[in-house]
Amino acid sequence: MKKLSLYVVLSLVCISGAFARSKKNQPKNLIDEPKQMAIAFAEDEMKRFPELWMYDWGTRPFFGYSQGVGGNAYLYLYAETGDRRYFDYAEQWCDTLVNEDGTIKKRAMEAYNLDLIRGGMVLCQVYRDIKANPELVGGKEAAKPKLAKYKAAMKEQLIRQLRNQPKTCDGGFWHKLVYPHQMWLDGIYMASPFMAAYGDTFKDDSWKAEALQQVITCWRHTYDPKTGLLHHAWDESAAQRWSDAEGHSPNFWGRSIGWYLMAMVDILDYIPEGFQSQFNQGHKDTVMISGRDTLIRYINTLVDALPQYQRGGMWYQVMDQPDREGNWPEATVTTQFMYGICKAINKGYLPADRVQIAIDAYNGLQQTPFKHRDEPLDGPMLIRDSIGRLTLSQCCAVGGLGGKPYRDGSFNYYINERIRHDDGKGTGPFIVACYELGKIVENVNPAKQSKKKK
Fold first, then answer.
1. Which of 119, 311, 124, 320 has its CA nearest to residue 229?
2. Is the pTM of this model over 0.85?
């Protein structure tokens, strides 16, 4: 982290005190330090899901986006800790699903489904890790066929799809072929970080520009200045039953906004300062933009709006109505906002004092009672289960719009979606969020951290 100003240091000292005081209310069977929580939770997930294709309750090897979320969490831990097991966990998934010619098993490119791009982030990071250290897979000769097939999978499967992905008139990707003219917040996370990472890895700035095009176009169509939040989706044709006259979906679904915040923070890993690119404003009317500055401004605007919707540290299934009867605190949006806020602080995109929002979320997960209608659980939303493993409860299993049966985007639709425990869309972000929070807390007292390392 860069040298801290006096204001930031004082803010962090105050926050450190608040963090220490809040730990007194945490259940005794959990873990005090965020980094320790990250490692312990990751280890328990590996016990729960011995192979990455099983992650998020997978029943067969599949290039799914939830496994993509989990795989990147473990590659992050590998980068931070050097523990080879975390790399192997992700690389074995890639190796199993990618054939020698680069084709990806059980993947239908013709669906033009952005969800099926997300796993590319795991492929891309595994490729970068092997390129940097061939010994990870047995040396240079053993690395060659793996690098070749992973590169081919990214170029001939994922990038090829994105070259032909249907678009709105102003250049926004349709979420899927079966959802014509629609941009969803979810799709920004599924595809845009991969495009930026691919562009950085293979020195092709056009894909960095495309990543910025997607996230900025989506903001222009979904951001609501009254709430400071983003609509779940936008329909250019305004033809969907869920759409208003401007094409907006009617509600602000928590996890969709979490996807979008994480996407912005992750894209910035690959967009250097001073990077300029063309932006399509519609019908090929283009202007030059500084996308990095734009995304940082968006991150601050969104995060500034979040505390007003927080209750007991948690955010709710329908974001802007936390006090409405029937609404409920939801774990995945809470972990995703933790991720976005903590990483953005460590990268210098957000002021350090915003960490209090994430600390409240971290404590809220450990103190908020699980009380959803579908399943009983004795304890808070983050707890040890009957065999002693950490488990994250009250996760929305899925959310969307349209389809069969038709999802109308109403308040009643969202609050009645099913829930489950240990959903990968929340557990992966939780692992990274805790580790990033640990970095911030340790920064307050570097002497203490130095002592720990001895």
1. 320
2. yes
